[in-house]
Amino acid sequence: MRSRRREKAVRSLGPSSPGGDGFRLNRREVLAGSIGAGALVALPDMGIGGLSGFRPGKSSQATLRYVFLYGTPGPEPGGSLVATTFPASPAAPPPAPIPVAVNLAAAPVLSPNQAVTALSTVDMVPGGAKITLTLLDATSATVAQQGSVTVPGVPADANVLVTPVFAPGSAIVSLVLAITMPAGKRMVRKADPGSGSLATQWSTTWVSHHALAYFDQRSGAITGPFHLSGEPSLALTTAAANSSDLVLWTTREPQADDPADLRAHATRSRVSVFPLGSGTARLSVSAPSPWPGGEPVITLPSGDVARMVRGRQVQVCSARTGEVTELGIPAFGQVRAKPSAVTMQARSDGTVFMTKPGAGVAVIADPAEEFRTTARIQFPLPATPLGAPWTKAVLSPAGDTCYVLGPATTGGLSAYDVASGKMAGSYSDGSQYAGLYQLPSGALLAVRPENPRLAFFSAGLSPLGTADTNLDVSAVY
Amino acid sequence: MTGYDTAGSIQNTYAAANSEFGTNPNFWIRYFTPSPAADLFNDDALAESQGAWDSGGPYVGCISAPRQSRLSGSAAEGQADAQAFAAAMLAAYHAVGPIQLPANGRLYCWLDQEYSTSLSSNYWNAWASYLANYDFAGLGTFPLYPCLYCNPNAPYPSCSTIAKAHGINAPAAIWSSEPEPCGDLSGPSVWDPQECTTVPTKLWQFGEQGVCNYSANVDLDLGGPGFTTAHYCFYVQSRP
Asked: With an 8 Å Cβ cutoff, are A263 and B95 in contact?
C-alpha cells in the first residue's frame, strides 16, 4: 500500500500562498439533521464570482452551494454520502465531516438545475418494501422534500434498485423500481475453486420485474407503484424524462429454455414511453443494442433522449415515436484495449459536452445538427482514465475553458481554451487526482485516494485549500 | 500461457495484434454487459466467435466493467449488474452453436475494478453470490465463478473487501493489473504480479496498450504457474 504523510485536514491558502487568489473562505454550518444511519458529506461551494477575474474579499454568501460526496467509508459496507465545511480562516480548526446517509439503495441523482440531489433508500417493512425519496436542498444541505411509497408483497430478502429520474420542465420525479425477488431455492453441489472438492450449498434463483412511481414536488405526494409487465426482466434499465414523458429501456431476461426462434428476439431491448404519472406505456418498441448497462443519458432540448453507447456513438431516441437513430462521434471513434470513462452533459445553450479521457478527448456537440462537433479538446491521458470517479474533464460555466486531469506523468490539473483547443494553463504539485468536478461557483474540486482527498482550485488553477474525508469518493453531486 | 484482452471486437482486432506480436494468442478476454464504454461480445457473439476462431485463439474469457461508481454501491446494484452479466453470457452461448462451456465446468467471470475505484462489501457479495448461484442454461452445473480484476496494491478497498467474503462469495481468482513490465506474447521471464493476501492471483495483465505503446488494441495477459487460462473460458470448438 502506498502511504503518504497526513497533512493538515483543511487548509485555506491566503494572499501569501504561492499562486493564491487571496480568497477567504467562509465557514457555514452544514447539516441540521441527518438522513438514515450514516454518512453523507456536503461541501459548501465557494462563491468566488468571476473566477479568473476573482477579486479578494468578495462575499461568497450569495452563491454558496453544498456539494455532496458519494463513496465508501472505510468501515462501512456500502454506498454512503457525507458533508463537511471550510474553516473561517487558515487558523481555524478543520471541519468534521458530517454523516448524512449510508447504505443508499443507489447512487444519488442531481437535478438538471443542480438545485436538489435525490437520494433513495429502501426499508423492508412488514408486508413490503418502503421506498423513500429524499430531495436534499443544495443551498442548505438539508432535506427539502421527502416522500415514501410502500410496495406490498416484496419479501425481506428481495433487492429493490431505485432510479430517480428528474424531468426538465416538470415537477414530477419518476422512480424506476427494479424489484428482484427469490423465485426458488434448492440444494446444489458445486466444486470449490481451490480444492476442487464438491460442496453442498443452498442456491437461490431470482426473478426481476419493474414498477414505476412518481413524486410530485408541488404536492409532495407519490403515486404508484405501477407494476410493469415483461417479467422476467433484467433489473438494469436506462431512463430519462422530458416535461411530459418517461423514456425507459428494459430488457427481457433470456431464459435457459427459450426456444431457438425466440432467442434472437429475446436479446433485443425495448424502449417504452410512459406519460409522467402513468403506469401504462403509450408506446413500446424494439430497441437496438446495447442492453441498458449504465450508459450516460440526457434529455435533449427537443424532448428526445440521447444515450452514449460503446463509448463512441450516440443513440437519439424520439420520445414521440421511440425510433432510435445512431450517430457517430468522430473524435470518440478510436477503439482502445481498455474502455474509458465517458460522460455526457447537457448545457444550457442546447449543446452537449462529452468526455472520453481514455482517448484524451472532450467535445462539444450540437444535437440540433446530428451531434456535429463544434469544439474538440485533445489532452494527454490521465493516470486513471477508467476508475471512479468518472468525471475527469469539465467545462467552465461560461463554456470557454475545459479543465482536465493532468497527464499520467505529472498529475495535477490542466486547462484548455475551448475555442483554440490549446493549453491555457496547468498546475501540479505531483498529486495524481482521480476525478475533477466543476462547482457552480466556478471553483474546481479534485479528488484523490489519500487525505487530503479533496483539493479546491480557482478557475486560474490556483490552489484554494484542501479537506479530508473518510470517504473513498466515487462521485460528487 | 498468454493472451489478449480488449474492449474492441475480436474480429476487428486480431489481425493487427497477431501481426504486431507475430503469433497467435492462446485466449481472449472480452467485455460483456454491463460495460457501458466498451464494444460488447454479446452484441455480436457470432462475429466475435468467428474472430476468435480465425485468430488462432478460440477461447474467450468474460469480464464486465460496470460504471465504476456502482462498485461502491448497494447489494441491489451488485445483484443487478451480475444478473445482466450472466444474461449476456447466456445470450452469447445461445447465439453461437459451437461455443462451449469449459470442460472443467468452471467459467471464470471477472469484475473490472480499476485503480481509483472502491469496492464495497454489499456490492461484491451480491454480485458474486448471484453469479455463483446462477443455473447457467439450466444445466444444473452452476459453472460461473466470480473473480476480480484489480490493482491489489491500490489504496482503495479491493483486497480488503474480498478478504471479508466467505464461501461462494469469495473470488476464485485475482487478475492483477500491476506491475506492467510490458513485453510480447512470450510473456515476462518471471511470474511477479501483485497479490491479495487471501485469494491467489491467477492472471496477470503484464502489458497494457497505453503504457507499453502497443499499436494493436490489446493488453497482454499471462496465466500463473499451473493455471491454464483457456481452461476457464468459453471454447469455440469450430468456426461458427
From this structure: yes
CA distance B94 to A235: 21
A257 closest CB neighbour out of B8, B68, B138: B138
Residues B33-70 have pLDDT tens digits of 999 999 999 999 999 999 999 999 999 999 999 999 99
Q: Does the model's pTM come out above 0.95?
A: no
pLDDT class of B20 with cuts at 50, 70, 90: very high
Query: B151-207: per-residue pLDDT in tens?
Result: 999 988 999 999 999 888 999 999 999 999 999 999 898 999 999 999 999 999 999
Q: What is the DSSP letter of B93?
A: H
Of A211, A184, A203, A207, give the one whose Cα is nearest residue A129: A211
Interface predicted TM-score (ipTM) of this complex, two decimals: 0.96
Residue type for position B180: E
Chain B contact for A118, CB < 8 A? no
Grid cell, residue A137, equals: 436542498
Q: Is A184 on the interface with B (CB under 8 A)?
A: no
Residue B21, chain A, CB below 8 Å: the answer is no
Confirm if B206 and B176 have CB atoms less than 8 A apart.
Answer: no
| DSSP type of residue A95 | P
Report the chain A residue with the minimal C-alpha distance to residue B161. Answer: A77
Region A432-449 average pLDDT: 90
Does A357 contact chain B (CB < 8 Å)?
no
Distance CA B222, CA B232 (A): 13
Judged by DSSP in three states, B227 sits in coil
Residue B147, H or E segment: strand B144-150
Question: What residues 172-231 of chain B have any CB closer than 8 A to a CB of chain A?
Answer: 172-173, 208-210, 214, 216-219
CB B69 within 8 A of CB B20: no
3-class SS at A450? coil
Within B56-104, where are the H helices?
75-95
A356 interaction partners in chain B (CB closer than 8 Å): 37
Closest Cα in chain A to B157: A74
Taking only the tens place, the pLDDT of each residue in A273-318 is 999 999 999 999 999 999 999 999 999 999 999 999 999 999 999 9
Q: What is the pLDDT of residues A148-185, one digit of tens each?
A: 999 999 999 999 999 999 999 999 999 999 999 999 99
The span from the CA of A341 to the CA of B114, in Å, is: 11
**Cα–Cα distance between A306 and A240 in angstroms, integer?**
9
Share of chain A above pLDDT 70, in %: 81
Is residue A463 within 8 Å of residue A445, measured between CB atoms?
Answer: no
Instruction: Report d(CA B150, CA B228) in Å as an integer.
Output: 20
Task: Provide the shortest C-alpha distance from residue B223 to chain A (in Å).
Answer: 16
Total beta-carbon pairs less than 8 A apart between chain A and chain B: 255
* Closest CA relative to residue B79, chosen from B45, B122, B109: B122
